[in-house]
Amino acid sequence: MIGSAMFITGDLSRADALQSRGIEGVRLMLGVVPLLVLAGIIEGFISPAPISPTIKFSIAALTGVALYSYLVLAGRTD
Length: 78
What we know:
Blueprint: H1 2-7, H2 14-46, H3 53-73
């Protein structure tokens, strides 16, 4: 995002484009960090644990449904 702001500024000055894209990039990273933490917890504690595969698949299904629900429903104002 920052790289494209340097070369494709649109109607903005280079500094304004960098500032607006930088803010968008920070917002994006703030959304990605919790997902990476959750993935790390699952990979660190659930995947290597000697528990039933049924429980592991249930956790995978639950997190998958939660993630896709968030991706589909987030930001909607309807």
